[in-house]
Design brief:
The complex is a heterodimer. Chain A is mainly beta. Chain A contains no helices and eleven strands. Chain A is about 0% helix and about 50% strand. In chain B, the strands form two sheets. In chain B, strands 2, 4, 5, 9, 10 and 11 form a six-stranded mixed beta sheet that branches. Chain B starts with a strand and ends with a strand. In chain B, strand 6 and strand 7 form a beta hairpin. Classes of the chains: A mainly beta, B mainly beta.
Chain lengths: ~110, ~110
Amino acid sequence: EAGVAQSPRYKIIEKRQSVAFWCNPISGHATLYWYQQILGQGPKLLIQFQNNGVVDDSQLPKDRFSAERLKGVDSTLKIQPAKLEDSAVYLCASSLGGEYTEAFFGQGTRLTVV
Amino acid sequence: QKEVEQNSGPLSVPEGAIASLNCTYSDRGSQSFFWYRQYSGKSPELIMSIYSNGDKEDGRFTAQLNKASQYVSLLIRDSQPSDSATYLCAAPNTGGFKTIFGAGTRLFVKA
Protein backbone atom coordinates (compact mmCIF):
# COMPACT_ATOMS: atom_id res chain seq x y z
CA GLU A 1 0.00 0.00 0.00
CA ALA A 2 1.43 3.37 -0.98
CA GLY A 3 1.92 5.85 1.83
CA VAL A 4 1.18 9.54 2.06
CA ALA A 5 3.09 11.41 -0.64
CA GLN A 6 4.29 14.97 -0.20
CA SER A 7 6.26 17.34 -2.35
CA PRO A 8 8.58 19.08 -2.40
CA ARG A 9 10.81 17.63 0.33
CA TYR A 10 12.70 20.86 0.84
CA LYS A 11 12.04 24.47 -0.02
CA ILE A 12 14.00 27.64 0.64
CA ILE A 13 12.32 30.97 -0.06
CA GLU A 14 12.78 34.59 0.87
CA LYS A 15 10.36 36.28 3.22
CA ARG A 16 7.31 37.78 1.53
CA GLN A 17 7.48 35.18 -1.24
CA SER A 18 4.79 32.55 -1.72
CA VAL A 19 5.10 28.77 -1.56
CA ALA A 20 2.81 25.79 -2.08
CA PHE A 21 2.97 22.24 -0.79
CA TRP A 22 1.20 19.23 -2.21
CA CYS A 23 -0.09 16.09 -0.51
CA ASN A 24 -1.59 12.87 -1.83
CA PRO A 25 -3.12 10.79 0.99
CA ILE A 26 -3.42 7.04 1.27
CA SER A 27 -6.12 5.77 -1.06
CA GLY A 28 -9.48 5.58 0.67
CA HIS A 29 -8.55 7.83 3.57
CA ALA A 30 -11.30 10.36 4.08
CA THR A 31 -9.49 12.51 6.61
CA LEU A 32 -6.50 14.63 5.70
CA TYR A 33 -4.46 16.76 8.08
CA TRP A 34 -1.84 19.45 7.66
CA TYR A 35 0.46 19.92 10.62
CA GLN A 36 3.21 22.44 11.23
CA GLN A 37 6.16 21.22 13.28
CA ILE A 38 8.67 23.78 14.47
CA LEU A 39 12.03 22.40 15.56
CA GLY A 40 11.83 20.97 19.08
CA GLN A 41 8.05 21.06 19.24
CA GLY A 42 5.25 18.61 18.60
CA PRO A 43 3.14 18.84 15.46
CA LYS A 44 0.50 21.58 15.51
CA LEU A 45 -2.69 20.99 13.57
CA LEU A 46 -3.25 23.67 10.94
CA ILE A 47 -6.26 22.26 9.14
CA GLN A 48 -8.22 19.03 8.96
CA PHE A 49 -10.38 17.93 6.03
CA GLN A 50 -13.07 15.29 6.00
CA ASN A 51 -13.39 14.40 2.33
CA ASN A 52 -13.32 17.87 0.73
CA GLY A 53 -14.88 19.74 3.65
CA VAL A 54 -12.99 21.58 6.38
CA VAL A 55 -13.49 20.09 9.85
CA ASP A 56 -11.13 22.34 11.77
CA ASP A 57 -8.95 25.26 10.74
CA SER A 58 -8.93 27.16 14.01
CA GLN A 59 -5.11 27.36 14.11
CA LEU A 60 -4.58 28.22 10.46
CA PRO A 61 -3.27 31.80 10.06
CA LYS A 62 -5.85 32.65 7.46
CA ASP A 63 -4.33 35.99 6.55
CA ARG A 64 -1.43 34.17 4.91
CA PHE A 65 -2.19 30.44 4.82
CA SER A 66 -4.76 28.71 2.65
CA ALA A 67 -5.51 25.09 1.92
CA GLU A 68 -7.82 23.19 -0.33
CA ARG A 69 -8.71 19.60 -1.01
CA LEU A 70 -10.38 19.36 -4.35
CA LYS A 71 -12.39 16.23 -5.11
CA GLY A 72 -11.66 14.94 -1.63
CA VAL A 73 -8.27 13.49 -2.54
CA ASP A 74 -5.14 15.60 -3.09
CA SER A 75 -4.55 18.72 -1.08
CA THR A 76 -2.43 21.83 -1.37
CA LEU A 77 -1.28 24.18 1.37
CA LYS A 78 -0.18 27.67 0.39
CA ILE A 79 1.62 30.41 2.26
CA GLN A 80 1.52 33.93 0.90
CA PRO A 81 3.43 35.97 1.94
CA ALA A 82 5.85 33.89 3.96
CA LYS A 83 7.40 35.13 7.19
CA LEU A 84 10.59 34.03 8.91
CA GLU A 85 8.57 32.31 11.65
CA ASP A 86 6.97 30.03 9.05
CA SER A 87 10.22 28.08 8.87
CA ALA A 88 9.17 24.58 9.91
CA VAL A 89 8.40 21.12 8.65
CA TYR A 90 4.93 20.84 7.14
CA LEU A 91 3.51 17.39 7.63
CA CYS A 92 0.56 15.93 5.79
CA ALA A 93 -1.22 12.98 7.32
CA SER A 94 -4.28 10.95 6.49
CA SER A 95 -6.59 8.53 8.25
CA LEU A 96 -9.74 6.57 7.60
CA GLY A 97 -11.56 9.01 9.85
CA GLY A 98 -13.08 8.93 13.30
CA GLU A 99 -11.51 9.17 16.70
CA TYR A 100 -10.27 5.57 16.82
CA THR A 101 -8.16 5.60 13.69
CA GLU A 102 -4.51 6.51 13.62
CA ALA A 103 -2.97 9.03 11.29
CA PHE A 104 -0.26 8.08 8.82
CA PHE A 105 2.27 10.76 7.98
CA GLY A 106 4.06 11.73 4.82
CA GLN A 107 7.76 12.55 4.83
CA GLY A 108 7.07 16.25 5.25
CA THR A 109 8.29 19.39 3.55
CA ARG A 110 11.04 21.32 5.29
CA LEU A 111 10.52 25.02 4.64
CA THR A 112 13.23 27.56 5.32
CA VAL A 113 12.31 31.23 5.02
CA VAL A 114 15.31 33.55 4.80
CA GLN B 1 -3.27 24.15 30.69
CA LYS B 2 -2.00 22.50 27.53
CA GLU B 3 -4.40 20.01 26.00
CA VAL B 4 -1.81 17.23 25.83
CA GLU B 5 1.19 17.59 28.06
CA GLN B 6 4.47 15.67 28.12
CA ASN B 7 7.76 16.12 29.87
CA SER B 8 10.12 17.30 27.15
CA GLY B 9 13.07 15.48 28.68
CA PRO B 10 15.58 14.47 27.65
CA LEU B 11 15.08 11.16 29.38
CA SER B 12 18.28 9.14 29.49
CA VAL B 13 18.29 5.42 30.33
CA PRO B 14 20.98 2.75 30.01
CA GLU B 15 20.64 -0.01 27.47
CA GLY B 16 18.46 -2.84 28.79
CA ALA B 17 16.58 -0.64 31.26
CA ILE B 18 12.90 0.27 31.26
CA ALA B 19 12.04 3.68 29.84
CA SER B 20 8.85 5.25 31.18
CA LEU B 21 7.18 8.05 29.24
CA ASN B 22 4.18 9.92 30.57
CA CYS B 23 1.42 12.05 29.10
CA THR B 24 -1.54 13.90 30.58
CA TYR B 25 -4.52 15.28 28.71
CA SER B 26 -7.21 17.79 29.53
CA ASP B 27 -10.18 16.70 27.39
CA ARG B 28 -12.17 14.17 29.45
CA GLY B 29 -14.08 13.26 26.30
CA SER B 30 -11.00 11.87 24.56
CA GLN B 31 -11.54 8.19 23.89
CA SER B 32 -8.40 7.09 22.09
CA PHE B 33 -4.72 7.71 22.57
CA PHE B 34 -1.76 7.16 20.33
CA TRP B 35 1.98 6.98 20.82
CA TYR B 36 4.15 7.97 17.91
CA ARG B 37 7.91 7.68 17.60
CA GLN B 38 9.80 10.34 15.65
CA TYR B 39 13.43 9.93 14.74
CA SER B 40 15.39 13.11 14.11
CA GLY B 41 14.57 14.50 10.68
CA LYS B 42 11.85 11.93 10.08
CA SER B 43 8.07 11.88 10.29
CA PRO B 44 6.13 10.45 13.23
CA GLU B 45 5.24 6.78 13.01
CA LEU B 46 2.60 5.05 15.09
CA ILE B 47 3.86 2.51 17.62
CA MET B 48 0.90 2.02 19.98
CA SER B 49 -2.76 2.88 20.33
CA ILE B 50 -4.94 2.39 23.41
CA TYR B 51 -8.64 2.96 23.96
CA SER B 52 -9.53 1.23 27.23
CA ASN B 53 -8.35 1.66 30.78
CA GLY B 54 -5.53 -0.65 31.75
CA ASP B 55 -2.49 -2.01 29.98
CA LYS B 56 -1.89 -2.95 26.38
CA GLU B 57 1.27 -4.82 25.46
CA ASP B 58 2.96 -5.13 22.08
CA GLY B 59 6.41 -6.67 22.13
CA ARG B 60 8.69 -4.52 24.25
CA PHE B 61 6.10 -1.73 24.43
CA THR B 62 3.32 -1.38 26.99
CA ALA B 63 0.80 1.44 26.93
CA GLN B 64 -1.13 2.25 30.09
CA LEU B 65 -4.30 4.32 30.25
CA ASN B 66 -6.08 5.76 33.26
CA LYS B 67 -9.04 7.85 32.13
CA ALA B 68 -10.04 8.85 35.65
CA SER B 69 -6.64 10.45 36.21
CA GLN B 70 -6.35 11.56 32.58
CA TYR B 71 -2.95 10.12 31.94
CA VAL B 72 -1.46 7.70 29.50
CA SER B 73 2.02 6.24 29.65
CA LEU B 74 4.35 4.21 27.50
CA LEU B 75 6.84 1.72 28.90
CA ILE B 76 9.70 0.45 26.79
CA ARG B 77 11.31 -2.68 28.22
CA ASP B 78 14.87 -3.75 27.42
CA SER B 79 15.58 -0.35 25.90
CA GLN B 80 17.90 -0.33 22.91
CA PRO B 81 20.00 2.49 21.44
CA SER B 82 17.71 2.28 18.39
CA ASP B 83 14.84 3.40 20.64
CA SER B 84 16.50 6.81 20.96
CA ALA B 85 13.94 9.19 19.46
CA THR B 86 11.22 11.64 20.39
CA TYR B 87 7.99 10.04 21.55
CA LEU B 88 4.79 11.92 20.86
CA CYS B 89 1.53 11.38 22.69
CA ALA B 90 -1.61 12.19 20.70
CA ALA B 91 -5.29 12.31 21.57
CA PRO B 92 -8.28 13.18 19.42
CA ASN B 93 -10.57 15.66 21.12
CA THR B 94 -14.18 14.88 22.02
CA GLY B 95 -15.85 13.65 18.87
CA GLY B 96 -12.54 13.11 17.15
CA PHE B 97 -12.69 16.37 15.25
CA LYS B 98 -8.99 17.03 15.67
CA THR B 99 -5.97 15.21 17.01
CA ILE B 100 -3.86 17.06 19.52
CA PHE B 101 -0.18 16.20 19.91
CA GLY B 102 2.01 16.76 22.91
CA ALA B 103 5.38 18.41 22.47
CA GLY B 104 7.10 15.05 22.77
CA THR B 105 9.65 13.49 25.11
CA ARG B 106 13.19 12.99 23.87
CA LEU B 107 14.58 9.61 24.87
CA PHE B 108 18.26 8.68 24.83
CA VAL B 109 19.28 5.08 25.38
CA LYS B 110 22.97 4.80 26.27
CA ALA B 111 24.89 1.77 25.06
